[in-house]
Amino acid sequence: MTRSPSGRLIGYIRVSTDEQATEAQEIELRSAGCSIIVQEHGSGASRARPALAKLLREISADDTLVVVRLDRLARSVSHLLAVIEELGERNAHFRSLRDPIDTTTPQGMFSLQVLGAVAQLERALISERTKAGIRAAKSKGKRPGNPGIREREPEMLAKVTAAQKEAYGKRIQVSLNQWLPTVKRMRPDHTWDEIARMLKQRGSDWTAERLRRAVKWLVTEHLADPGLLKKSPARPPEDRLMSLVAGIHSSDPDLTIREIATQLERLHERTPRGGTRWAPSSVKNLLDRAKRIGLVDTGIE
To answer: Which residues are listed as membrane-spanning (predicted)?
Structure first.
């Protein structure tokens, strides 16, 4: 049964250069009912899609991302599936006007499943061809791999480095919604180590250095505020604990004082007196202090 989303229709336009016109795509998207249009200028093969990344971060549940054709959105089947999966995680939908892909209909979902099967077959065929090529090269006495890389040619090494940076950026953008809000709430008042420990408590496998590197990449790409990289101020131990308690509360205001105490113990934080067991009264004292100086708006009971 076809279901009609009640959210917004958001059109996405991509053209390869600044000189290319977007009017034709915009007219088609407006005619389809799109009230918002997001434009992107960049090569179809490029993974750098800041406008798309921002749209995926901010799209709301039941909204539908609409494109004129699939090639306006994705550079490959795997990229398309990754975008649709991210939309699904936010309970949003996807529709291509000129292709049979519409995740709000059974027919569209079937077409998507077919694409997924094709992508899996494509990966298997590529892997098999690669292995066959290596075996053939070895039988002729040739060494596998790119000669330019083996010979450390600067141009080839530069291409490899650029590809690695592009792949890294893609990985970072895919998981932004899972960890960046916490970083924004806690930086620069808290150290990278404190934030990494907080994220690990929630199931994310971050180290302080990898987290700092990811945020540095976002700042370089103008996708995050440079203020996140400011040095954390030195604080007395009790002030640091107060800020940490305030950060935990701000991240989830529904937590009770006892639940915050449990989180502190799981983070292996010592009490102000150096103990390992947190009493709710100790947490309440720190939270009340944070409230008095404006670190949090309200207390919890």
So the answer is: none
Residue tagged 């100790």 (tokens)? 282
Backbone angles phi, psi at 107, to 5 degrees: -65, -40
Measured distance CA(57)–CA(89) in Å, rounded: 11
Which residues does residue 10 pair with via DSSP β-bridges, in sequence order? Answer: 36, 65
Whether residues 250 and 220 fall in one domain: no
Count the domains in the chain. 3
On the question of pLDDT at 70 being above 90, the answer is no
- Domain membership of residue 142 (yes or no) is no
185 assigned to some structural domain? yes
- Domain presence at residue 245: yes
Residue pointed to by tokens 């690695």: 164
φ/ψ region of 184 (left if φ > 0, alpha if ψ in -120 to 50, else beta) reads alpha
Whether 105 and 13 share a structural domain: yes
Q: Which residue has the higher pLDDT, 154 or 9?
A: 9
Residue 98: both structure tokens together: 């000129």
Q: What residues make up the domain containing 43?
A: 9-109
| Residue 136 resides in a domain | no
Query: Cα separation of 238 and 269, whole Å?
Result: 11
Its pTM stands at: 0.42
Say which of 4, 6, 16, 243 is annotated catalytic: 16
Please confirm, yes or no, whether 16 is among the known catalytic residues.
yes
